[in-house]
Amino acid sequence: MKKRLVIIGAGFAGMYAALSAARLRDKENVSIEALEIMLVSPEPRLVIRPRLYEPKPETLTAPLDDVLSAIDVTYVRGTVAAVDTSKQSIEIADGTGKTYAESYDRLVLATGSCLFRPPIPGLAEFAFSVDQLDDAIKLDRHLQALPRRPTSAARETVVVVGGGFTGIEAATELPARLRAVFGTAEGTRVVLVERNDAVVPDLGPGPRPIVEAALSKLGIETRVGLGVTAVDAAGVTLSNGEHIASETVIWAAGIQAAPLTEQIPAERDRSGRLVVDRELRVPGVPGVFATGDAAKAASDDIGNYALMSCQHATRLGAFAGNNAAAELLSLPTLPYHQEAYVTCLDLGAAGAVFTRGWDRKVELVGDEAKAYKREINTVWIYPPRAERTAALASADPEQVTNL
User: Fold this and answer.
1) Whose CB among 149, 239, 257, 333 lies 3.0–4.6 Å from 272's, allowing a Cys bridge?
2) Rounded CA gap, 276 and 306, in Å?
3) Which domains occur in the chain, in start order?
C-alpha cells in the first residue's frame, strides 16, 4: 500500500527534509510508488533568508524545481491553510481561491518563522523589515527612492530597532548601502536601538567588544536599554521620550514560529515552537514531526537547544525527513544531535566575527572572518546541484552542517 510523507515548507529545513527522506528511500531501494514524498510551498524556491539585509534581495533565491525533480519529490504549489491531525490531512490553498485536502501518513512541519511584531502604534504602517523576501525588496526600493525625496535629516537617517544578529547585520551593511544610494556618506546617519543593556545580548561578552568597535568604526550610533513606543511617518519615539526623525525605520526585534504550529494540539514554547522529542516527533500527535524554526529541539545532553537559524535548520531538516521516512519503512530512527555550534556575524565594511561553541569563543575577526562569512553565504547555504547522486549524498543527517 502506498505511503505518503508530506513536508510543509521549502526553507532550509523543508529542503533538507525532502532530500534526506528521498536519500533513505533510495538507499533502501524503495520505489516512488511505495513511498511518495510531497513538498508543499507557495513557490518552488529557497529564499536565502540570512542574506536579506543585503542590496538587491530579489536575486537572493535559488530554484528547487530541478533538485526536487532529480530526487523524485512531488512539488505542490500552494499554502497549507489548515492541518487536521485527527484525520491526518491538510488543506491546501492553491493561490486561485480554491482549496483542497490531501492526506498524509507522516507530516513534517517545516514552516519556519516570522518577525515578531508587537502592537506598537504605527509599527505595522510605517516600519520596514528584512524578514521575508517581499519585505526586503520593499525596503530596497524605498532606499533607492530616497534621493528623489526632499532633502532633510530624516531622509538621510535610518533607525534599526533590534540589536540582535539580524539587526547588527542590517545596521552594519547600511552605511555602504546609503553611500551607494546618495553617492556620498556625508550627512547620512544610522542609529541602532536595543532594549537590552548591550547589543547582541545573546552573543555574550566575549565577541561584544568586537561588535561595538565595528559599530563605532562605521559611525553607527547606538541607543541601548531603550524600547520603542511609537513609529510614525516622521520617525520613531523611544521609551525615554526621544524622537528620532527618520523616513526609514527597520524593525528587527525578534522572531517567532510561523502561525501554523498553533494548529497542532501540542506543547509550544514562548516563541511558538513545537516541543519535540529527540527524533523530532511531536509527542502526543501521531504521525507529526516538526523541524527547523518550528521545533524546540534539544541539540545535546547538557541543556542546549537548537536556535532559529539556518545552521540548525538544515541539520534538523535532515533528521526529520530521515526519521519520518524511516517510520513509514519500519526502519530505526536517528536521535537528532548537533553538538557543534558556531556563529559568523557580518559586520559590513568592518569585516565579521567568527565564534565557536556555546561560550562563543572568538576564532576569527575582520577580513579573515569576512571571507568565511562570504563562503557560508554564497556557497554553503545554497541547494545542492540538481544531480540525483550528489543531491542525495548531501543529505546524510550525520554529516549535514557538522562543523
Assistant:
1) 257
2) 11
3) 3-114+255-340 (3.50.50.60), 117-251 (3.50.50.60)
